[in-house]
Amino acid sequence: MSYLPLDFDVVQSVKDFVFDLCEAMRRSHRMDELEHLYSNDFPRLSSEYFKVEPWPVAEAMAGQCGPRGDPLFLLFYSEMRLRWACWVGSGIIAMEKWQ
User: Fold this and answer.
1) Share above pLDDT 90 across residues of the chain, in percent, rounded to a whole number
2) How confident is the model at residue 3 (pLDDT cuts 50, 70, 90)?
3) Which of 91, 92, 76 lies closest to 26, judged by CA?
4) CB 69 within 8 A of CB 62
5) Region 46-74: what's the mean pLDDT?
6) Do the Cβ atoms of 26 and 75 come closer than 8 Å?
7) d(Cα 46, Cα 67) in Å, to the nearest integer?
8) Burial level of 88, CB count in 10 A (0-12/13-18/19+)?
9) Span 46-64, mean pLDDT?
């Protein structure tokens, strides 16, 4: 029996963003690139794809950070995800916990 990866329904531009963010933060240590991704790409993708839906959970995006994921980066990603949910004020993360 084969299983689909957790990120099978995540659009490619979001996967690319998470990969690039992980690369900038953990591997290349490019602060200018990290700042651009966080300040420009994150809000753009958020408003394009995540107005009413939450960003994918960290576990679903772990594959974008290498074969075993990157626990520190995934913690950072989770924080970004929660901050976005609080900023839009929709409570979408809280509702997700009840399902």
Assistant:
1) 33
2) very low
3) 76
4) yes
5) 87
6) no
7) 26
8) middle
9) 88
